[in-house]
Each structure stands twice: as structure tokens, then as C-alpha cells.
Design brief:
By secondary structure, the protein is of the alpha/beta class. The protein is 39% helix and 14% strand. It has a single domain, classed as 3-Layer(aba) Sandwich (Rossmann fold).
């Protein structure tokens, strides 16, 4: 890829939960397009492996181990990030966990709290600290200061039995994205969300693509590809991070092969 083809050349990007799955795919693709990556995860080994991949692509990569649902850890991580990067141009709030199939009346309170905390509270905390610095980013008056991309889900658009806590958290991200777009627009910062459908990631454990496609989970409309890959989501993230999407904000974009519309 030539320098002219790199859509994020020189940009500094923070990606939470970048040690595997969708986060890793976004980190690698962004690096291929010239971005330097601040890699957050709670798994140091996984995060360092991704950092090595980024460095092999010729880009800067720094690992920050922190639980982004924990306020003191996010505060300390922010200090470390800005000791290593002059500014963060793009924030990808990707960290999250899945949930076992449980009805609301049978769900344990501690499980509900953990799912909401990891999936939704983390977006609030990281955005709170990073956006405070992002609004001060140096940028020409006709350009954006920054971009924020939140990882929601098709479950955040349509509720489904057994996924109450997860769906509520992801719906919260969709709403929070709209709120942030309104609050940060005056600072020339866009905020958008991605709503993946069924994506083959480590969140499902060792299950194969074939078995995942044949599970009871909702399938997409594209029979040739019933299950998406992390790279499918990463490509949409690249669009939202690039200048091609500068006039788009407050949106939650499905990446689901049509899942959720049947």
C-alpha cells in the first residue's frame, strides 16, 4: 500500500479491548493505513502480541493494561497514554463481554451489574477522560479534531429473550452515542457506533463458524456468509475513522448481513 492510499496516516488511535477479536482486527487494519495504536486490554499476553503485529507493520504501538470499567484504572491509563502520545485522534470503545442465555427473572444481580459495567460504563469512563483532551486537539478550522467509535450490537437495536442485560447495555451505547454526538459536535468531534450482528470472535469460545451459523442465534440474510468476521466490522470502523465519514455523526451502523431485519 502506497503512502497516498493510507487513510489514517499519522493518526493516533486508542482501541479498548484490542487484544483479540474485533478490537485486534481494527488495530491491525488501522495500522496498515498508517495509524499509531494505543492498545488497551486486560490480557497482557494478547495485547503484546497485537503490539508486535503493529510494530511489524512499521507503526508505533504501546500497550496499556487496564480494566476500562474501573474508574481509577481508566484515570491512570489516561495519564500513561498522554505520556506516550501527544494526542489521541480516534477513540474506539470496543471492550466488552458477552452473556449467557438467561431470562431477567432468573438472572443474578451480580451478573447484570457486571455486564452493564463492562459493556456500558466503560464507554462512559473512557470517553469522559479521552474526550476532555480530544477537544483540545490541534486541527485546521475546516477539519475535525477527533472521532469516537463505539461498539454497540444489533441486540442494542432489537431486544431478544435471554439477552436482557447485554441488550440493555448495547442499547445504552446507541443512546449514549447520540448524546455524545450532540455534546461534542461543537468541538468538531464526531461520534458514531457500529452494531455487529453474528460475528465469529473469541467471545463465543471454541465454536466453529459452521456450528455458530447453525446455532439458535438469529442468522443473516446472506446465505453465502451466515456469520461475519472481525475484519467485516474493522472495515466499517476504518470508514468511520477516515475523512470519508466526516459528515456522519450520531449514527449506529449495522454490520450484520441483514440480521435484525427479519
Amino acid at each position: 500500500m502506497s503512502v497516498l492510499e493510507k487513510r489514517l496516516l499519522g493518526k493516533n488511535v486508542l482501541i479498548t479491548g484490542a487484544g483479540s477479536g474485533i478490537g485486534r482486527a481494527i488495530a491491525v487494519l488501522f495500522a496498515k493505513h498508517g495509524a499509531n495504536i494505543a492498545i488497551n486490554d486486560i490480557n497482557a499476553d494478547a495485547a503484546n502480541k497485537v503490539a508486535d503485529e503493529i510494530k511489524d507493520l512499521g507503526q508505533k504501538a504501546v500497550v496499556f493494561i487496564a480494566d476500562v470499567s474501573d474508574q481509577p484504572q481508566v484515570k491512570e491509563m489516561t495519564k500513561e497514554i498522554f505520556a506516550n502520545f501527544e494526542q489521541i485522534d480516534i477513540l474506539v470503545n470496543n471492550a466488552g463481554i458477552g452473556a449467557t442465555f438467561t431470562s431477567i427473572i432468573h438472572m443474578k444481580v451480580e451478573n447484570w451489574d457486571r455486564i452493564i459495567k463492562v459493556n456500558l460504563r466503560s464507554v462512559f469512563l473512557v470517553t469522559r477522560y479521552i474526550a476532555r483532551r480530544m477537544i483540545k486537539n490541534k486541527a485546521p478550522k475546516d477539519q475535525l479534531r477527533g472521532k469516537i467509535i463505539n461498539m454497540a450490537s444489533m441486540r442494542g437495536k432489537t431486544g431478544r429473550s435471554g439477552f436482557g442485560a447485554y441488550g440493555a447495555a448495547k442499547a445504552g451505547i446507541v443512546n449514549l452515542t447520540q448524546t455524545l454526538a450532540q455534546e461534542l459536535g461543537k468541538y468538531r468531534i464526531t461520534v458514531n457506533a457500529i452494531c455487529p450482528g453474528l460475528i465469529h470472535t473469541p467471545i463465543y469460545g471454541p465454536i466453529s463458524i459452521e456450528n455458530l451459523a447453525g446455532s439458535s442465534l438469529p442468522t443473516c440474510l446472506q446465505s453465502f456468509k451466515p456469520v461475519g468476521l472481525p475484519e467485516d466490522v474493522a472495515k466499517v470502523a476504518l470508514f468511520l475513522a477516515s475523512s470519508d465519514s466526516d459528515f456522519i455523526t450520531g449514527q449506529s451502523i449495522p454490520v450484520s448481513g441483514g440480521q435484525g431485519f427479519v
